Amino acid sequence: MVWTKECTANVSTFLEKRFGMFLSGTALCLVFVTSCKPKIPPPGPPEVQVVAVVQKDVPYYREWVGSCDGSSNAVIRAQVSGYVWHQDYQEGRLVKTGDLLFQIDPRPFEAVLNQAKANLAQAEAQQGKTELDVKRYTPLVKEQAISQQELDDAVQANLAAKAQVLAAKATVQQAQLNLDFTKMISPISGIAGISKVGVGDLVSPNSGDLATVSTVNPIKVNFFLSEQEYLYTVKHSAVTGWGKGGPGPDLELLLADGSTYAQKGLISAVDRQVDDKTGTIHIAALFPNPDTILRPGLFVRVRALVGTHRDALVIPQRAVSELQGKYQVAVVEAGNKVSVRSVKAGERIGPDWVIEDGLKPGEQVVAEGVQKARDGLTVVPKPFAAVTDQPPAEAKPQTK
What we know:
The protein is of the alpha+beta class and 400 residues long. It has helices at 5-19, 25-35, 107-142, 148-181, 227-236; strands at 47-52, 54-77, 82-87, 94-95, 100-104, 183-185, 190-192, 202-203, 209-226, 251-254, 266-274, 280-287, 299-316, 320-323, 326-332, 338-349, 352-357, 364-368, 380-383. It has 4 domains: 5-35, no CATH class; 41-72 and 217-400, Beta Barrel (Elongation Factor Tu (Ef-tu), domain 3), CATH 2.40.30.170; 79-105 and 182-207, CATH 2.40.50.100; 107-181, Helix hairpin bin (Helix Hairpins, Orthogonal Bundle), CATH 1.10.287.470. It contains 5 helices and 19 strands. Helix 3 packs antiparallel against helix 4.
């Protein structure tokens, strides 16, 4: 409507006759504006984004936190006391079985060995004399040239001399062994760690670890399952024999930087029992590690394909509302009216959620704007802009 001077005059005349007052055009306009507010139209139906319930086969995974360890670990300790003469390996490099790692000053042990060898020679000489005495006395007894007692003494002396020879040989062997222990060699092939001692340090069997050699190809990954996780995984495993000594499903590793390790692994051992203190069972897996990228101590996430949901009904997780342990979904029905339903939620897989009961394939559910979708309300549905390129995530059993 266009307000003109004629309108102002008509209104002014009406007010003057009716109420006995006269208003100027400006005042009249203010009265009109302040007293005649325009009517605001009621809001239309809210816009929501909807997505169809999809029925498809869905693989589902489980994930656990694990740590890397050498498939074999050899802790190098001193077995004799002495000063470290030199270190014969490069720290952090590959060593082979039999490679020399440390050399303890061998000279004191060489002296002990020489002394033991001398004692052995003396014992053998003495035993040789007593043996000759026995041979010499035996015919003399028959001729009654000497008494039987003298022969018996010679025989016993010979036996004692033989025992001395055996003891001396054992001393030589121990001295040789101690001398060999001055050379600390690697019992396995693997990566040799950083040394904890330096050249010139005095070491002994009580000195603790000097270094550690670990076989890292393959590398072992240890992880632990709770009793519930173990039973759930075994029952739902796609591979027969998972918990019965079989290799189980292929395992993947998710590294700390978010990347997925290129090599797949297999379960190598399932512990014989559940730890009664922690309620978990120890699982060990082996992964190829040809480039030695993985090192002991790395924390990783172990992921396993447990199975496949056949003909599962899938909707985005954001379409599901949880309240006091109950799950609800807003369904857009005929006439664009909202029906809020209770559903039975199953596994979470990536950005989606498997719905076990309460929905049908093809039904439209609200995925964006759920807070606007009240039961019985009419809405304006729009297609949902789905989030793509999501990696598969851990499938968690819902507590019912």
